[in-house]
Amino acid sequence: MDYEQFKEECKQACHERHACHDGYQMLLRSNSVEEILSTVVRNWSDVWKSKYSDIVAKNITRWFDGLENNFHRAGIYVNEPARNGIAIVSNPGKVLHFEGTTRVYIFSKAHVIATDTVQVYCRDKNSEVSLFDDAYGKIEAGRVFVHDAAEAETHQECTCYDRTTIHAMGGVLYDYGHRRLSATEDVEIIKKK
Asked: Do residues 146 and 128 share a domain?
């Protein structure tokens, strides 16, 4: 992958998903991979909130191949541990451990362990996330195990322990202990000892 091909594919993705005007203009003015990635980081909420997520999930490892240094300079890591920045996880085939202040976005099947103040966002039903220390997870799909003083918003399956804070918005909650728990009425809570 080179700069010209990467920029062309990003422009095509913007056309297909009707990107916002400002983000598209920033992309057109980009003169390097780093500038393109800076635009992506500035508009990350559009990327994650499904406007482009299927394109990213399909292409991220191919885009990353050969442009790793550019991605790293922009603070973006793909299927690899990081202590800060944005980590994109898309079917890595191994358990990934994140610490520090990384924001982790799971696009497809993964097993992620997060410690410190890492934030994990997951919409893949086949993924498993374990949160420790003061980590946070917004787990819209998949399984999550919450330990220590971690916090999670969960929509599918959650197991909590220790002094955790849980916001269960659906699915099943296996409760081995918590500090705070809020659950919608459709959540099945199974108390454990």
From this structure: yes
Nearest Cα neighbor of 75 from 85, 89, 67 is 85
Q: Is the dihedral of CA 133, 145, 111, 155 positive or negative?
A: negative
Model pTM score:
0.92
Name the 3-class secondary structure at 151. Answer: strand
Same domain, 43 and 94: no
In this predicted model, what pLDDT tens digit does every residue of 59-76 receive, in sequence order? 888 999 889 999 999 999
Q: Are residues 172 and 142 in the same domain?
A: yes
Report pLDDT digits (tens) over 89-113: 998 889 999 999 999 999 999 999 9
Q: Quick one: the chain helix, strand, coil %, rounded to 5? A: 30, 30, 35
Residues 109, 62 share a domain:
no
The answer to whether residue 51 scores a pLDDT higher than 70 is no
Residue 111 carries which DSSP code? E
- Expressed as residue numbers, the domain containing 149 is 76-191
Looking at the fold, whether 38 and 22 belong to one and the same domain comes out as: yes
- Cα–Cα distance, 135 to 172 (Å, whole number): 21
